[in-house]
């Protein structure tokens, strides 16, 4: 059997176990403790731009709490990028609100500023001003930050910046995660760094961070007994897992460099094929290249490549299926232009782990070249 090549496996740096061991030795086996505090500090130092971080049990939980902090509630509408993973949209429904889906533009594959404004105007004409906007830096490529935030400011609508795939990416020198009223990171097993499972909510001030932590730890009022004036959640990160996060933050820069190297390698070896194209970084954008994506001429070619790789024990994956095409969201209002649907049909994510070796990359490129011959 040929060696399995995964799409995006975990890649430990070396110090993670020491921090986990520290948690055991000090008996901080709880959803709080020194590892959580240190992990939060290292995230804040890395992201910069005055970001405050609250570590949570998942990125999905961070989006849920973020929406709640922005006042989203039953009957509200929230605009959401359609071309994304379902976790960007699901939490909107947890609060009894409805996602309104907006399609992508070609330069970054993220939310189209033109359609976004059209959607806001349309919903306002229906007497439903959107309560928030969920914009996503998909595959690590920053969305059109200036345009999207100018529109949001103009209509006074807060933005949740879903940066789950974009830790280490930046736009005009500022790090992704620091642009939204609320930013979201994920440390799931396949992300650029991982705590096996976990996430973080980023915000602009300490008060909002404290509110997030309050809601994430069962919303307990300040009293000697257990008293509650709010509905709370159990969303805080475990101090054991935060130990993994501390170790991973020490190698984040290397992980970004390795993923960007994967992209360069694929581009160099595959863009000579007339049938394969890549997405470039627009001026001012720096992508962590979480996953390298290629576009093929058709659904058939995409599937041929995917199955040819699969036969050789190599995992690849179609691009995200847009939310407006998902059975669970098919009745939702959406503003579409065909772009995300086309990307889904023709696009494939190639193995992109930071631990890939040149031999692996070479093997993958060889199979693709052979298939397209
Ligand atoms: C992974 C991911 C999430 C969810 O993060 P989890 O930590 O897995 O809950 C949200 N949005 C996007 C775009 C993601 O890729």
Automatic annotation (TrEMBL):
Example GO molecular function term? transaminase activity
InterPro entries noted in UniProt: DegT/StrS_aminotransferase (IPR000653), PyrdxlP-dep_Trfase (IPR015424), PyrdxlP-dep_Trfase_major (IPR015421), PyrdxlP-dep_Trfase_small (IPR015422)
Is Transferase one of the keywords UniProt gives this record?
yes
Determine the domain of life of the protein's source.
Bacteria
Q: Name one Pfam family in it.
A: DegT_DnrJ_EryC1
Q: CDD domains, per this entry? A: AHBA_syn
Q: Which UniProt keywords apply?
A: Aminotransferase, Pyridoxal phosphate, Transferase
Alphabetized PANTHER family for the sequence: DTDP-4-AMINO-4,6-DIDEOXYGALACTOSE TRANSAMINASE, TRANSAMINASE
User: Its family?
Assistant: Belongs to the DegT/DnrJ/EryC1 family.
Name this protein carries in UniProt: Aminotransferase class I/II-fold pyridoxal phosphate-dependent enzyme
């Amino acid at each position: 059997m040929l060696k399995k090549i995964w799409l995006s496996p975990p890649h430990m740096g070396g110090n993670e176990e020491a921090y986990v061991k520290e948690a055991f030795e000090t008996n901080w086996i709880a959803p709080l403790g020194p590892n959580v505090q240190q992990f939060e500090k290292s995230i804040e130092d890395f992201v910069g731009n005055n970001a405050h971080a609250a570590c949570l049990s998942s990125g999905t939980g961070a989006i849920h709490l973020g929406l709640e902090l922005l006042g989203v509630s039953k009957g509200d509408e929230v605009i959401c990028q359609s071309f994304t993973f379902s976790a960007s949209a699901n939490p909107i429904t947890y609060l009894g609100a409805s996602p309104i889906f907006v399609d992508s533009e070609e330069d970054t594959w993220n939310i189209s500023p033109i359609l976004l404004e059209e959607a806001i105007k349309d919903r306002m004409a229906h007497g439903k001003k959107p309560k928030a906007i969920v914009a996503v830096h998909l595959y690590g490529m920053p969305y059109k930050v200036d345009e999207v935030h100018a529109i949001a400011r103009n209509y006074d609508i807060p933005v949740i910046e879903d940066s789950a795939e974009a830790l280490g990416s930046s736009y005009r020198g500022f790090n992704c995660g620091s642009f939204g009223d609320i930013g979201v990171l994920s440390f799931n097993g396949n992300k650029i760094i991982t705590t096996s499972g976990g996430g973080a909510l980023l915000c602009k001030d300490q008060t909002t961070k404290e509110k997030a932590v309050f809601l994430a730890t069962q919303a307990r009022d300040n009293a000697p007994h257990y008293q509650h004036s709010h509905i709370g959640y159990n969303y805080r990160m475990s101090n054991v897992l935060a130990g993994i996060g501390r170790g991973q933050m020490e190698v984040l820069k290397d992980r970004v460099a390795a993923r960007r190297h994967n992209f360069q390698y694929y581009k160099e070896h595959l863009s000579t094929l007339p049938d394969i194209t890549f997405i470039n970084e627009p001026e001012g954008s720096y992508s962590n290249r979480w996953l390298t994506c290629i576009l093929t001429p058709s659904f058939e070619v995409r599937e041929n490549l995917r199955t040819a790789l699969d036969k050789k024990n190599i995992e690849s994956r179609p691009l995200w299926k847009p939310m407006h095409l998902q059975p669970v969201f098919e009745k939702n209002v959406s503003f579409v232009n065909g772009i995300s649907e086309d990307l889904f049909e023709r696009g494939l994510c190639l193995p992109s782990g930071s631990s890939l070796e040149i031999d692996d990359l070479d093997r993958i490129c060889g199979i693709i070249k052979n298939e397209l011959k």
